[in-house]
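Cross-posting from the modeling subforum.

Setting up a comparison between two proteins and wanted a second pair of eyes on the formatting. Protein 1 (sequence, then structure tokens):
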Amino acid sequence: LKRARDQLLDPVARLDALSGDAVALLRQTGQKAALSGLAERPKPRGPTWLTTDYLSEAQEVLAERTGELHRGLSAGLAQTREAPAAEGANSPEQARLLRRLEAAEPLIGAAHQAFLLARGALAAGRVGDAVEPQQRGVAKLGAAREHFLDLRRLVELLYQDEQRIASLLGTPEGNPAAEDIREYVPVAVALQSGNQERMQRVTEAIIEALVGVLDAQEQAVAQPDTGATVDTQGAAPAQPDSAALETERQRLERADALRVQAERAMQQAVADLNSLQQVPAQSEELTAALLQARQSVALTLTPVESLRRLFFSVIDHLQEALRRQVDLGDRTEETAVLAETETTQEIARRLGPLGPEQGSLAEIGGTIAEALREQARQPTDAPSGDQALAAPDAALDQQQRERLGQAAEHVARAQPQMEQAAEGMTEAPPPFGAIRGAQQQAVEELAQALALLQQPPQSQPEEQDRQDQQDQQGEQQRSEAGEQGEEGARPQPAPADPGQLLQGVRDREAQRREQRAQQQRHGYDPVEKDW
């Protein structure tokens, strides 16, 4: 089914799916290798489902899927080179796609070869030898993926790696020893050099988007009755009117100015990190060199953060976290139903991989909560990627910050529920009731946070009137006010209605309970998945 789905995905989504499975497999292999390498007698037992055969089979499927992608890209490139005069082959879009394919194809091929090496090691029972080629394959897939990313996602990667560099160097407040930090300097140098190369792709994406906006503005002036549309490479949705095009042009020009500032600071950071790497470990100059490197990285991180605020949408991340939590809940419920008929070993095998995924989602929830708190503390004078939160005047700043803060608290309350669910999955026997209760609570908290972020801004008098009427008219008046706000304040529906999503989750829960009761009455075994 995964191989069938791969054929229907675009390159970025396909590489995302491969990378996600590869990273999960790498973690499981590392855990198995660590347990196998312990000299203690008796050795601590790992999860019963985490066997060498399981890892070998998963690696074989991953290698096959990666090889299929590589063969498809190679065949497409060969066909394009053989027929360069085909219709549309000389268009800018076709030329840009061809450059991306040519850059990504050898990287995907290298990932395929690395996964084949890992498969051979696992098939021979050498779990520890599979970790290094798995790491290399994950890195190659990530590098190939970047060639297909749009502007916003490139900026997000730029910001994430710059944050990692700052974290590796530590802070004076943390009082880390310079000698302890020095062992992480090579990693920081590699990350900073990678960001410097990534900045070139960011520059190209900004220029392409800006040219597209300028062309659209010229078309709008030449043909004012028909309007114009523009593809800004993920920076913003298509805007048909001249005012929106002008706003987008100003945002992209601001992004270009921040890009220049970050690029200059990044060159200095690379030089200072290389200098720090060359300073002897016990040298007196080590502390001064570390301080200089920290300052350079901080000067780089500041414009990168500002650049990210122009394009980053925390709503997108929150929607994805909510979707993943709902999916995890569905898969956990399926396993809970099977627990009535399957053996303990089979249930552990099915539930085992869900625990790390639930724990990873809890970490993402903490990151989203911190991002929301950070946005609540930021001034709102600069345009944001969250158009639903954009306030038309300064009087709405406090209202906007309050919603951001409230959403952050909802996400923060969801995080411990996710962690509780992940911990419950490791118990034997697993308490499915407590696990599903925690997952359901996490879904409700995330949905409430999303509803706050997608709520349209209201003027101060309307907000005061609504507050005054709340105590008198109760829930009915609030519902009417919500319907009026949807008709008058929102020009178009939100991309995802958290209320409907949450109600859908509750309906499925009720349906599952009814189906389980019927199964117990009739005495037949439940199927694994109702397709």
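Protein 2 (same layout):
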Amino acid sequence: MASKIKPAPQISIKSNATAGKMSQEVPDTAFDQLAESIRKKIGIKGPVKGEELTSHLEMVCGEVNRLLRSSFGPKGFDKLIINPVNEIVVTSDGKTILEEIDILHPAVTALKNLAKSMDKACGDGTKTAVILAAALIANGVKLIRNGVHPNTVVQGYRLALYKAYELLEYSSRPAKSHEESYAVVLGAALSKGMQPGLAKELTHVVLRVVERLNCLSPEGCLDLNENIKILQKSGGPEVDYLEGLIMDESPARPDMPRNFNKPSLLILNYDLKFKSEYLSPRHDKMARNLETAYSFRDKQKDILRGFADKIIGSGADVVFCEGNVDLRIEEALARKGILLFKKLKLKDLEKLSKATGTQIMVISDELAPERLGRADSLEVIKKCHESFVFIRVQNQPIMSILVWEPVKYNLRKVEEAVDDALNSAAFLYRSKMIVTGGGGVEFDLSQMLRLYALTLEGKEQLSVLEYANALEEIPKALARNAGMNALDAMTEIAASYSRGEEARIDLSGKVRADAPFVYDLASIKKLAIVSATETACSMLRVDEIRLKK
């Protein structure tokens, strides 16, 4: 897309340094190159207004639309992006694509912000919102070129939005069965190109996890980042889940036990070893002779032995340490049959602390048995040349999902699919309202908006018609990516619509009005339409783009 935006001409930029009455111009090559690269990314070389502005908006939004349209839906294609440091990103996620293309044009920036806001608000629907916003801007530009005032276009778009929202409210209905809930989450998982078999297994797991967490969370307060841990590994394909915590960690020593029933857990922060060679806390005395060095070493052994005895005396069966642990402590714990994990991530320890009802302590604290955490079971398993510790804790709002993906380069796509599926499931339990998926609801809205446009007077009618045309970009994109002829697909959907059937683009690449059904969340669809319309209206109200000097 960057190649179709005319770069700014080479401009000589000089740095002036003034000292008293002396003035000297010093060329700064690095600054010149940086400024020139930024101008190329922005794609404008000076003030842009009038016909040039409309051309910019039409070209940029058309390119963004084409970029995301081909990756839309379960049959969409991936984008292989090479960033400036030669890292390869393979993704079909709308937000990731817009972030990685590294273009700073104001219109692209507005669409990037739209994608970020959608991802932050509901974790899904980013491409729907961006494709619709880009189509609305491009269609609005056509009206402006034909003499329609931008404010009239914006007013017509707002009328169309109010009517579309009202129609969505009317078209929405609650998900009454498990099959309908399953169809909603499955569509979210498949939208990132995950294998159908793995996506179906993931959907069942996600529904169980979110349903269980909703029962355990106080007052239905569910935080996906805090309550769920997700791991993606090469292998499988397979999906494991656990009511508790799964950690990809190995025991500190191979001779430590691997299984516990109802273990007591101790969580420690910081290192359990000595690094300093000073003899005093002030660091003003060092071992200068052999006798002093031996004495210091013996003292270190006594202190480390005291640490080990303190841990053993606490009654802990398993110890999790955020830092490193001295080998002498490891040996002492292994002799007593205590399992030790070291060099752990603090985020995992915080989740473990929340799940087991303990606090993260330091070795200087009182390690009493009543301050230890409890788990129902703990097991260390080695799979695909990696060690995992499964800590089962029932009736606590902590769940873990482990997804095995055969292809290593698809792990990022798996992460995006799991994230979308979890967000859709969480929204589903908050609001059960669903609408027809597969582009069906967008086509229905476009047809009803065309009838609504006939009731209007003035040029706002034209804006409502263009709004309806923009909505049809969604089913057209799904049809193209499924290998169908877009015109034939739209004709079949229109025929089903005239018969009163809920038609949509199916995974099989056909227009279907019977089972299996495809559903989308009504709340995400509403948010996508509102956000896209507001973004398009804000861009169409711009009459000039200026570069700050």
